[in-house]
Each structure stands twice: as structure tokens, then as C-alpha cells.
Amino acid sequence: MNANVTAGIPRQAAHLVDGSLYVFRAWHSMPDEFHDRDGHPVNAVHGFTRFLCELLEKARPEHVAVAFDASLTTSFRNAIYPAYKANRELPPADLEHQFVLCREVTAALGIPVLIDHSYEADDLIGSALWSLRGHGLSSVIVSADKDFGQLLGEHDEQWDYARNLRWGPAGVHEKLGVMPHQVADYLALCGDAVDNIPGVPGVGAKTAAALLSHFGTLDDLLDRVDEVAYLRLRGAASCAARLREHGEAARLYRRLTRIALDAPVPAEADALRRQRGDAAALEALCERLRFGPLTRSRLGALADS
């Protein structure tokens, strides 16, 4: 894992940004002292815009897109499993409004915005990465979310921007104990509390990694579940019993943890090429959001770059 990004990332790598994550981070980290000209809070917009400016200034990507979640309750996963993300509170109305404004700032900077009511930001990023790979482009996923590990190919990277950490496929194994192609199976087994996916009872992260190291895939594990009792695992016999009881549930959970690669994203790589910013739209947003002179200057410079 490389914690040093001072050398920068090659311009030819497409940067795919988990926009919703960074809006939420800005919402929680920025003081509630920023208001637009109508008096509405815009602290998340100010924080997100600063993040986006800094990212563009550092990386200077030729291909870039920012993906946003349209809703916490409308993705195809909710139809499969109604409890999916049911543990999360819905964003307050003030934050919902700020999400719209963050998308407006992104688009005004000439950056393609990806959003869909049936697919989450993860799926849009995964589908864009898959499409770009077909055009010979590598990708950098800008996010701290562990789910994205399943997408990383040999030449791809994930960039946890806030912690200044970057890693490729080997870093996924270092973090989780499994290879990228096993991440969805791993999360189906041990669960993901953030998304309200319970996993198989009693199967924690280390056990899930050990099982996949031995069997390779969730399907092979469940097909050969009788062998589990003979592994050198603590509580191997009871683990085998739980896998027999909850095997079909684990297969269901994998439908939730697997990032879709067929979400509606542009098929051509040039559709994700950064365009010249819309100076008039940016100026109007600066007035409306009451951006300070430094942010206005940065936006203006980036619009022309």
C-alpha cells in the first residue's frame, strides 16, 4: 500500500469519484455557518466544492466523473431485500437540497455527473470502470469504501483522499485478507453493518477470509460445506452447521454486495472526458452560494483549464 501520493497519478487514468461520500463528509465536518443568499444552510456544498477543487488541482484528470446516489430507498437492492440500508436515517431536507447543489457545481465545472434511481453510485462507478477498461483506460476510484475493492484490476487504484492513501489489488488483500474477485463473497459471509447486511451468524471477517482462501468462492464453499468441519478453524463444526442453515441467505446477500457492471453509463470513453467549465453557471452559483474570493478564484481557474 502506498500512503504517498505526492508524485501524483497519471493523467491517462480516469478518476471516478464517490460523490455522495464526500458530500456526507462535508456535511459532518464543516461548521454550520455557511448560508446561501436566501438563508439556507450550504455547509456541505462549501466543503464538497473545496474537495472537488483540490482533487482537480492535484490530479488534473482528462477523464473524470462524479457519481451520486439518487436515494437510499429506491435501488434494485431494496426490491431484493427490503431491509437493505434500513438502519440509516434519511438525509434531512436541508441536506437533500445541498446534494442537488453539489451536482450543479460538479456539472458547471465540466465534470460528467452519474446518477440513477435504480442503481447506486457504487454501481455507476463500477459500470463506468468496466466500460473504460474496455477502451484501454485504467481507473482511480476516489473513495474510502471497502466495497470498491472488488472492482480493482491490475492497473486500477483506489484513493482514500482524506487519509492520503492509495492502493491497488494487492492492497485489497492486505486490508481484507481476500483478493478483489472475492470481496462480494467475503461481505456476503461476514456481513456489512453499514448497509444492514447481516451475513452468516458467527462468521466474522477472519473466518470469512479463511474460508475463501481455502474454497475460492462462496458457491464452492457451500457446495463443499461438509468439508468445513474438518478445517483447522475455531468452531469448525458449528461453522459448517451455520453455513448449511444460512447458505441460501448468503447467496442472497451476495446479490446485494456485488457491484453491478450493467448500470446505465455512457458507452464511449470520450463521454467521460472533462469539458470546459460553464463560466456563467459557475458565476451564478458563486453568487447564490456566497462563495468567498478564494473559492471563486479556484473555480474560475479550473473552468478555464
From TrEMBL:
Q: Which UniProt keywords apply?
A: DNA-binding, Exonuclease, Hydrolase, Nuclease
**Family matches, as Pfam families:** 5_3_exonuc, 5_3_exonuc_N
**Which GO terms are recorded in the biological process aspect for this UniProt protein?**
DNA replication, Okazaki fragment processing
One GO MF annotation is: 5'-flap endonuclease activity
Q: Where is the 5'-3' exonuclease domain?
A: 14-275
Q: Which InterPro entries match?
A: 5-3_exonucl_a-hlix_arch_N, 5-3_exonuclease, 5-3_exonuclease_C_sf, DNA_polI_H3TH, FEN, HhH2, PIN-like_dom_sf
Put simply, this protein is called 5'-3' exonuclease
Q: Which organism is it from?
A: Rhodanobacter glycinis
Q: Give the source lineage, highest ranks first.
A: Bacteria, Pseudomonadati, Pseudomonadota, Gammaproteobacteria, Lysobacterales
